[in-house]
Amino acid sequence: MTKINKTKPVLVTGANGYVASWLVKRLLEEGLTVHAAVRDPQNEKKNAHLKGIALRTTGTIKFFKADLLKKGSYDEAMKECELVYHTASPFIASVKDPQLELIDPAVKGTENVLLSASRISSVKRVVLTSSCAAIYTDAIDTVNAPNGILTEEIWNTTSSLDYQPYSYSKTLAEKKAWEIADRQSHFDLVTINPSLILGPPLNPGDTTSESFNILKQMGDGTMKMGAPKVGMGLVDVRDVAETHFKAGFLPEAKGRYITSAHNTNLLEIGQSLLPKYGDRFPLPRRAVPKWLLMLVGPMANKLVTRRFIRNNVDILWQADNSKVQRELGITFRPMKETMEDAFQVLVDKKILTAK
Q1: What residues of the chain score a pLDDT lower than 70?
Q2: What is the structure's pLDDT at 298?
Q3: Which segments constitute the NAD-dependent epimerase/dehydratase domain (predicted)?
Q4: Contact predicate 236/338, CB 8 Å
Q5: How far apart, in Å, are the Cα atoms of 330 and each of 30, 154, 238, 257, 322?
Q6: How confident is the model at residue 12, as a pLDDT?
């Protein structure tokens, strides 16, 4: 069991990101010193919210320049740290070159951070932000899983460079992390595997992230004729950050943790907004039939292939989140709270305007 000394600094890679910002907030509120590794420490637009949190809490933040693709880039930031959180990784649905834009940053970035941890003797634990995407590609994979439910023992075997390359990148990155961790003995590795993450961003600029594109489409009329019942999991960004925090400091934390609050689908997620916003925004109210999607989906959106529709629409998605609740004591927010808090940010920023 690994005990972390809270007087030592804690490294967070990609510290100004969506999940990482909430994690940094939690660490600063605990009075810790955070070594924030970011691409550009001088970028006020991306870092100001973290500096503001540090001023309002008892913690301290120090920024370090780091690049996922540069070897040894994290060495300086990692010095004296017993705990390392590696959250930095791209989340992009549509890419021109999956190898260059997804695979290389995810795999080489993870390799660089873990190799630094192997060299720096102070490191006792690395917590990696992985994904449920490292466990499955399509909802049909959950149906085909033992007992029809995803568990931490399962690995994604159906994604590739050509199909769902994001899922492939997360799978390869996590496997690389375990491979490096298994070759050494001075730190242990814990991975957090969240499903779709939604909830309010701490950084105002984070409304441009991939997760928020789904929210925008629900509120701007794109789905006013209905939404497909694409099976998926959903979890609140604040709960994911708390899971990271506990996975870092609870001595008994070990292995992988599926971090998903709700077994749900795209239509159900949209419908959770109806009570508060249904009279002002063209939210989805009904399911788009699968046969219709098979006809028009591929024409409307190149990412929505017939294979994707066949494997995800009207397919029940299920994951077992009992391990994270039992071992880390995590309780999850209701879907309605997550969705309303996230949607309200888009309304407040006038990204979405009421009809």
Answers
A1: 90-94, 207-209, 297-303
A2: 58
A3: 10-247
A4: yes
A5: 18, 21, 11, 11, 9
A6: 98
Residue 96, pLDDT score: 82
Domain boundaries, the chain: 10-198+233-260+318-331, 199-232+261-317+332-355
pLDDT of residue 259: 98
| pLDDT of res. 88 | 81
Dist CA 46 CA 135 (whole Å): 31
Q: Is 203 left (phi over 0), alpha (psi -120 to 50) or beta?
A: beta
The pLDDT of residue 192: 98
- Tell me how long the chain is: 355
Please give the pLDDT value at position 354.
83
In the block, which residue shows the tokens 């959903």?
234
Contacts of 291 (CB under 8 A, 6+ apart): none
Q: Three-state SS string across the chain, please?
A: CCCCCCCCCEEEECCCCHHHHHHHHHHHHCCCEEEEEECCCCCHHHHHHHHHHHHHCCCEEEEEECCCCCCCCCHHHHCCCCEEEECCCCCCCCCCCHHHHHHHHHHHHHHHHHHHHHHCCCCCEEEEECCHHHCCCCHHHHHHCHHHCECCCCCCCCCCCCCCHHHHHHHHHHHHHHHHHCCCCCCEEEEEEECEEECCCCCHHHHHCHHHHHHHHHHCCCCCCCECCEEEEEEEHHHHHHHHHHHHHCCCCCEEEEECCEEEEHHHHHHCCHHHHCCCCCCCCCECCHHHHHHHHHHHCCCCCHHHHHHHECCCCCECCHHHHHHHCCCCCCHHHHHHHHHHHHHHCCCCCCC
Residues 178 and 249: their CA atoms lie apart, in Å, by 20
Q: Return the half-sphere exposure (C-beta side, CA atoms, 13 A cut-off) of residue 303.
A: 9
For residues 164 and 94, what is the distance between their CA atoms, to the nearest angstrom? 10
Rounded to whole angstroms, the Cα distance separating 162 from 122 reads: 40
